[in-house]
Amino acid sequence: MNNQTSKTKIGTKALVMGGSVAGLLAARVLSNYFEEVVIIEKDELPDSPTNRPGTPQAYHPHRVLLRGKMIVERLFPGYTEDLLAEGAYLREGKTIQLNYRYGSIIIPDERDVGCSRALFEWVIRNRVRVLPNVKIISGCEVSKLEMSVDDNGQKRITGVQLRERKAPGPEQPVTIQAELVVDASGRNSKLGKWLIQLGYEVPEPERLKVSLGYSTCHFNVPEHLKDKWSTILVEGHPAKGIGTGVFSPIENNLAEVLIFRAGGQSYPSVKSEDYVREAETLLDSTISELLKQMEPVASPRGFRVAECIRHRYDQMQNWPSGLLVIGDALCNFDPIYGQGMTVAAIEAEILDLCLQNHLNGNKVAFERNVLEKMQEAIEPAWWLSAASDLQWPGVEYSGGYSMEGFKFVQRFFDEYLTQAIGKQNIEMFETYMIMTSLLIAPKEILNVEKILSVLNEATTEEGLELRLEYSGEAGILRLKMFLEEHIPTFALTF
């Protein structure tokens, strides 16, 4: 990342709404380009790596995908060592076991650590705190955007109004002016409402009505298991209503165990006496056998998400200068795929590149350019998670994507994974995992040549049907036309 001198700053002050991971990453980038960066966080921030009210999902497992880790390491060199110093679990060399209905993959983990969301945020926040031009104001929330209109009718966000959350009785609003305001306030962002109040037409967002639920229980890890496991995944079987299970050690000799289902037909139990029995319903017994060897720290906790939302502010006819949005405030994902923090890191990287271009003189439509590039970054993660979640009965999607495209990719990946995992084709499997880690675009697999090579080796009923449908010259032409019509172009250059 770039380190600008005071003579090459873009402006005097930038303001970030929200002090969670997306806000901290944005503030780190902005600190290179503005003389002062102010983070406004509604929670009183803890003085230790503990959960806080504004992150009710923090008790549950979080992870940063490979691409996200690369970006965070560039922003905060050595942050992994900081995590280890705070007691994070070293996963390097430990066993990853991935169990699917197609078979299992067992591999050693590379350089990685396991930790809670609270510890990850704590380490990143401590790195941001020591930046000399960054200030964090906690216990306050933004109540209004401030806007000005110039003689040509051009609108610009010039700052925000704040209120102290615990202030007794009515109070005078406090205004903080800034040349750039970034909304990183998460799933509960009020940005759409504020823009409507300011006279803007806001497009209807894309919605994935996922009705997901998961339960997490923390266990003490006994001595004989401490150096064995990195991660155990038992993927679910949506058509049969069988949930997904994940086992992952974190700091302080604890392990997080999660059970997940989507569609709203049933939710995992939050009763301790039922939790092990629930784990026994997974497709593989590895996790349930482990649970019998460990003691729970407390009762399981549940978490529910009714829908995931992708705001399309990039489609607005007008957008005010001086305003950006990042993280869950722009698009929030099904947490089971671990995409949220990685996408926030990608967005921070895009912000950095766009600010560098702005510094070099490319100032035209700066904010809209950032929004459009962030949407390009969001698209692969959003589309892949939607395609996966739509396998669960009861999940619904509303937006611009083709349902035929989703159905096709579900059928195709069923065949692809049957070959990759069932036949232990590690090269195929690694390509799939690199795609889901957001390092390559889905088009690296979902192209005519790759699809035909997979279908030529088809063994499943779905795969054989697809091979028949797209065989011969006429079939290849149909496949090409289908992909052009129903599969996104994924414009972002990886």
Topology readout:
Layout: E1 11-17, H1 21-30, E2 34-41, H2 66-75, H3 79-85, E3 89-90, E4 95-100, E5 103-108, E6 113-114, H4 117-129, E7 134-138, E8 140-149, E9 155-164, E10 174-177, E11 180-183, H5 191-197, E12 206-209, E13 212-220, E14 229-234, E15 244-249, E16 254-261, H6 272-279, H7 286-291, E17 295-296, E18 301-305, E19 308-310, E20 323-325, H8 340-359, H9 366-389, E21 396-398, H10 403-422, H11 426-436, H12 448-455, H13 461-469, H14 472-486
Parallel strand pairs: 1-2, 1-11, 2-7, 4-14, 11-20
Antiparallel strand pairs: 3-6, 4-5, 8-9, 9-10, 12-19, 12-21, 13-16, 13-17, 13-18, 14-15, 15-16
Helix pairs in contact: 1-4, 1-8, 2-8, 8-9, 9-10, 10-11, 10-14
Structure keywords:
494 residues, alpha+beta, FAD/NAD(P)-binding domain, D-Amino Acid Oxidase, Chain A, domain 2, eight-stranded mixed sheet, five-stranded parallel sheet, 14 helices, 21 strands
Q: State which percent range the strand residues make up.
A: 15-25%
Radius of gyration: 23 Å
| Shape assignment | globular
Q: In this structure, how is the largest beta sheet organized?
A: 8 strands, mixed
What is the CATH superfamily classification of the largest domain? FAD/NAD(P)-binding domain
The stretches of 5 or more residues where confidence is low (pLDDT under 50) are none
Strands, count? 21
Q: Give the averaged pLDDT, no decimals.
A: 93
> What is the CATH topology assignment of the largest domain?
FAD/NAD(P)-binding domain
Helix share bin? 25-40%
The number of helical runs is 14
Number of domains: 3
- CATH class of the largest domain, please? Alpha Beta
CATH architecture of the largest domain: 3-Layer(bba) Sandwich
Cα separation of the termini: 17 Å
What structural class results from the helix and strand content?
A: alpha+beta
